[in-house]
Design goal:
Shape: globular
Largest sheet: 9 strands, mixed
Order of helices and strands: HEEEEEHEEEEH
Number of strands: 9
Helix content: 10-25%
Strand content: 35-45%
Distance between the termini: 53 Å
Amino acid sequence: MSNDSQTKLALQSFQVGNVDLAVREDEVLAVIDWREPARLPFAPPTVLGVVAIQARMLTVLDTAKLLDLETTARESILALRGTEQLALTANVQGTIMIDPTDIQPASRFESLSSGMIQKDGRIIHLLATEQLFATALEERRRKRI
């Protein structure tokens, strides 16, 4: 390949429990140290509450509960760009660069994943943020009924 910087895709990697996850770096608004979100009355278990980040109120999703993982450790909040203004609980690892052709079909978290990659002996699940937004809306609607 003639120009690696044009062919590489930047991902923000993070862990939830012992599972490695990532989102596209261009979908990340900010990463902040953990702070307790303000609770929302009648919110479903996957919604921890809201937190202000860069003058925006973001709904904080419990990534572990969203993915059915057994963990409560939270070190960071990963704020996502988008119309739904969401943030995820995460233990942020940093930026990784991958070749987009290395993305394979998802073998786990199919409904919330856009694929997976193998890097440095790890399997990293790439989350589909559009689906996270849709899932959050579905959870909110379900709670209202």
